[in-house]
Design brief:
It comes from Aegilops tauschii (Tausch's goatgrass). By secondary structure, the protein is mainly α. Helices cover 62% and strands 0% of the residues.
Length: 883
């Protein structure tokens, strides 16, 4: 979709797209994949440098080899040893650009150890780059020391004695400016590193180095503060654009823009002729133009047109009046940058679309969206471009002619690359979108609601719309099968920020974060045919951004993983699941800052999302199946148990079991494998209990055979029933109860056998009590606790054996009970007489305190089933006295 000006062929956009004969054009910008979510490539903030692009797209092993070759030539070494200050500044600038290629994870490897090592090295490199740049900056400009000490990522390093002996860097003002630019360019890598506070601090430092003319402080009263200001003016627009995109910006953009323009006006009034001030004025003009286009092209914030016109008039005055060549260059580059040319910006961080479908009111005092497509600024922008174009052709001064040619060439190159990107991006959708737009009638509810959202103006006082109204409109449009082809990316981002723009009193007591949820639901519903919404979701699910989202927004994204998998490519989906695994399992994750209840809610959402993926999207044959299994492996140890073995968060456990029921048919057996519990630590003991409980619940649900659970019978019944293991017995008994009668009989007989040899016979007896209690006629009257299930055994076991299913095995069960009774009675009798040890007959000493109780209980139980014992055993039973 092209802007209005280019459609008409006569506006500023059409003029910028003309071929300029005889004008040297800049190299064609390196194109970068803007459809990251659809192609699967990780999107950088903008076009990287050629060597950076190449290195980051090699496989990790080759990338390490290349970095190893480049290391001896690294700018860190040069910056320390160079005699030229300008070389130091250039190295600092290069370091800033270089670290943007780190922590991008553009490639992945099957070697997890290699990938982890690469990540560790790249994280260390980012910190080393920032330390090198800040230390060099302090050496060249000691006045920066106080500000840079606020950066926590640099650690505590001494600043004393680092200053170099010089009087001024007036001859090389770009030395310090280059280091400042390197500092500003590092914010992307710091953000990926998770150093969000340092990103904000760098932004604040750069702002502080640009003097506020309206304050009472003296301009540039410190040596080399001019160079700091130069670098800040050029670096700040990219930093602001990045912070704006990742929601790290709370600054007054109008005040920040006015700081630029006021400083430029002040310098023009001072009429300083020194070269350093010419460079400064040039940097201010270029930076102000970049800042203006970054704000307007983003489409979220509206600027006062009077301020914009005043700035453009100042630039026009600069390049049409006799000023030094550097000032002319700044005026022309500032003008084309205001229209989105991006001259001097090699990072592309602040590059936004120069085409927009935002509605502009010709009589409005505010402008929002690109100037080249704004009716309110069309006359001014067209006349300025025409003047610069004519200067490029006819100016008598060679400097002015060359500067003008390059200015228009930058804009033309940017315009052509924008249109090419749009053509590639929309070639498969243009006809569909245009037909959709034409198919909406003027009376259509969807059409009118869409236009209402598009034309919302939060900047106008007295024109405040309640948050719940906006949320309701979005909810209605979410249910629409299709929506008009308008600038939904801008609309959704504005709605996401509405809580900061609308006073709290107008929210009608509705939580503003609920509006952000509606933005997500709308984006998920329509991202399959609206690429800005797809890009919006891609940004939100990138790990550094995901970490900072509100918990309810994270929860929505986790529950709708199946939608995201349908939208994303396989490689992008893989990265998404790897990021989520890191988020939930990393020991330094911000997820740990939540309360235990909040963490459980997030995990529950993740379980639900994975379950939907397994049901709707992923099959066993796809590669995505392995990614999901890794996430489940990450989540399983996070299913918490209380001290008594009960699940700590019932809803989370329920969601987990439902998910495992879906995947269990293809699940590897070693995932829930339980080894002997005799030599396990407390943590491993709880982990074994968790796995058995999960298996028992899966068995109860019918997706795991009770025979498979029976393989753990010895482990389950030979472990002390204290703490979490009591609930293991309860869960296993419930699972066996749901099985067929043959399984029940086998478990009861085996439990009696195990009781005859185990070191913890009370565990086997408690299980027998649980199983018999659940299967006998007295079940509704029984109280389930570790003591009662033993006390009730003389009633529950005979009742269970009276069932018809025991007709052929009743005597066998009674015999096994007699053997167990004999063992326990003999042991207890010896303990009573003081003749035996607590650990007699391999019975654990912890069982001794219940020995008499167990012996008497088993004696009573045998009397209840004595009719099924042989005569000799009945005689021996009659001779047993109560202890």
């Amino acid at each position: 979709m092209r802007g209005a000006a280019s459609k008409e062929g006569t506006g500023a956009g059409a003029l910028a797209g003309e071929v300029i004969t005889g004008v040297p054009l800049p190299p064609k910008p390196l194109m970068w994949d803007r459809g990251a979510a659809m192609t699967g490539q990780r999107r950088f903030p903008g076009p990287p440098g050629r060597w950076e692009w190449a290195i980051c797209h090699f496989a990790p092993t080759r990338r390490q080899a290349i970095l190893a070759v480049l290391k001896p030539l690294a700018p860190q070494a040069v910056i320390s040893n160079a005699d030229s200050y300008l070389v130091k500044g250039a190295c600092g600038l290069g370091l800033g650009y270089a670290c943007q290629g780190l922590l991008t994870r553009a490639d992945s490897t099957s070697d997890s150890d290699l990938e982890a090592t690469t990540q560790f090295n790249e994280r260390a490199s980012v910190k080393e780059v920032l330390h090198t740049v800040t230390a060099s900056l302090v050496k060249l400009c000691p006045s920066s020391c106080h500000s840079l000490k606020k950066l926590s990522i640099c650690g505590t390093f001494s600043m004393e004695g680092m200053e170099e002996n010089y009087d001024s860097l007036d001859d090389d003002p770009w030395a310090i400016a280059g280091l400042v630019l390197g500092l500003g360019n590092s914010v992307v890598a710091l953000y990926r590193l998770g150093a969000y506070e340092d990103v904000i601090e760098i932004k604040n430092i750069l702002i502080s180095w640009i003097p506020d003319v309206d304050s009472s402080s003296v301009l540039f009263d410190v040596v080399n503060s001019v160079s700091l200001c130069m670098g800040s003016c050029l670096a700040l627009p990219s930093v602001i654009a990045f912070c704006q995109r990742v929601e790290l910006l709370n600054d007054d953009l109008d005040a920040l823009f006015n700081r630029y323009t006021s400083l430029a006006t002040e310098l023009l009034n001072l009429k300083k002729s020194e070269t350093v001030f010419q460079n400064l004025l040039m940097a201010i003009c270029i930076g102000a133009g970049s800042l203006l286009s970054g704000i307007l092209n983003d489409g979220v914030h509206a600027m006062k047109f009077a301020d914009v016109k005043k700035f453009l008039d100042s630039l026009k005055y600069i390049y049409t009046h006799p000023y030094p060549p550097l000032v002319h260059l700044g005026g022309m580059f500032g003008a084309v940058n205001a229209f989105g040319a991006g001259a001097g910006d090699l990072t592309g961080i602040g590059w936004q679309s120069m085409n927009s479908q935002i509605k502009h009111e010709k009589e409005s005092s505010l402008v929002r969206g690109p100037l080249l497509t704004s009716p309110v600024g069309e006359t001014l922008s067209t006349s300025m471009l025409q003047e610069i174009f004519l200067l490029a052709k006819d100016a008598e001064d060679n400097h002015i002619r060359n500067y003008a040619a390059w200015a228009v060439s930058f804009l033309r190159s940017r315009w052509l690359s924008e249109n090419q990107s749009l053509d590639n991006d929309s070639s498969q959708r243009n006809s569909v979108d245009s037909s959709q737009s034409r198919s909406f009638s003027a009376e259509s509810l969807v059409w009118n609601l869409s236009l209402w959202l598009r034309d919302l103006n939060f900047e106008k006082p007295g024109d405040v719309v309640p948050v719940n109204t906006i949320a309701t409109v979005l909810k209605c449009l979410t249910k629409a099968p299709r929506v008009p082809a308008i600038d939904w990316g801008v609309i959704v981002r504005r709605c996401m920020k509405v809580e900061a723009q609308i006073p709290q009193k107008s929210t009608n007591h509705r939580d503003p974060t609920l509006l952000r949820e509606e933005c997500l639901y709308f984006s998920l519903a329509h991202a399959d045919h609206i690429s800005p919404l797809l890009q919006f979701l891609d940004d939100l699910t990138d790990l550094p951004r995901f970490r900072r989202l509100e918990m309810n927004v994270q929860s929505v994204l986790l529950q709708y993983l199946s939608h995201l998998m349908k939208l994303f490519s396989d490689s992008r989906s893989k990265k998404l699941y790897e990021d989520l695994a890191v988020y939930f399992c990393s020991h330094s994750s911000s997820y740990l800052d939540y309360s235990s209840e909040q963490r459980s809610m997030l995990r529950m959402s993740f379980w639900k999302g994975i379950c939907k993926c397994l049901v709707e999207v992923v099959s066993e044959e796809t590669d995505s199946f392995s990614y999901l299994k890794k996430c489940i492996e990450c989540l399983l140890p996070l299913l918490n148990l209380c001290n008594d073995g009960q699940p700590e968060f019932v809803d989370e456990w329920s969601a987990a079991i439902k998910c495992l029921i879906v995947v269990q048919k293809s699940w590897p057996g070693d995932m829930l494998q339980v080894h002997s519990t005799t030599s396990l630590s407390e943590g491993e003991h709880v982990d074994a209990a968790r796995k058995i409980i999960i298996r028992a619940r899966l068995c109860f649900a019918g997706c795991v055979s009770a025979l498979e659970l029976g393989n753990l019978k010895t482990t389950i019944l030979s472990t002390t029933a204290d703490g979490v293991w009591w609930n293991v017995l309860v869960e296993v008994a419930a699972a066996v109860y749901s099985a067929d009668n043959g399984i029940k009989k086998q478990w009861l007989l085996d439990a009696l056998d195990i009781g005859c040899v185990t070191a913890h016979p009370s565990t086997a007896l408690r299980f027998v009590g649980l199983l018999c209690g659940s299967c006998c006629v007295y079940m509704p009257l029984l109280i389930v606790n570790p003591t009662n299930v033993l006390s009730d055994l003389p009633v529950t076991l005979p009742s269970f054996l009276s069932s018809s299913i025991w007709n052929d095995l009743r005597n066998s069960a009674a015999d096994k009970l007699w053997l167990l009774t004999t063992r326990i009675y003999t042991w207890a009798e010896q303990l009573t007489r003081g003749e035996g040890l607590p650990c007699h007959d391999h019975i654990h000493g912890s069982e001794a305190e219940n020995a008499t109780f167990l012996a008497n209980m088993l004696r009573s139980t045998c009397f209840a089933v004595e009719d099924h014992l042989a005569v000799d055993k009945q005689l021996k039973l009659a001779n047993l006295e109560a202890l």
